[in-house]
Amino acid sequence: MTRIHVLLVExxxxxxxxxxxxxNKETDMTVAGTASTxxxxxxxxxxxxxxxxxxxxxxxxxxxxxxxxALELTELQPDCRIIMLTSLTAEDVMVESxxxxxxxxxxxxxxxxIPDAIRAAYNRQSAIHPTAAAALxxxxxxxxxxxxxxxxxxxxxxxxxxxxxxQTQSEIEKTLFITKRTIKNxxxxxxxxxxxxTSKEAAAKAKQKKLF
Length: 212
Fold this sequence. Notes:
alpha/beta, 5-stranded parallel β-sheet, 5 strands
């Protein structure tokens, strides 16, 4: 019998151990790997390429970073099957989950539904029509991109674009007709906003997020 390989992403040790045991009792599925953070999830997913991912919506308290993790996994593998696990029922959170690529959304209080949900996901039976899911995801990505662009001022985006092209501060000074002091002030603000240690790292992140 073919077993469905499941990746469980859950930060609560008790839930992670309990769900692992519960799922492994099913004869047609097994937990191939577990993770408690976004970074671990990406690493384990890359290594094992599971059939289905069970994703806790909050890997860090109230941050909804499970949605960001789901988005990153669908970028790695667009057809991956992700089921969001949560105690939240807000409609906007559910919409964001599906927009990020999830195929189902289950409350932790309904954990008995998980095995059947895993089978449905494995068999490409989604709780949302694929066309609607694609439209939601595109809109979600567009809104995220617009939100990110608002993080930086036009001048900061111009500077990052030039840094990405390999220009030095002296060259940027001549290109944008601004002083080195102004450039340094912009870069200091950019590093704080982007959570980067160097201007090159910030430029790379901005390029990845399509901010310029």
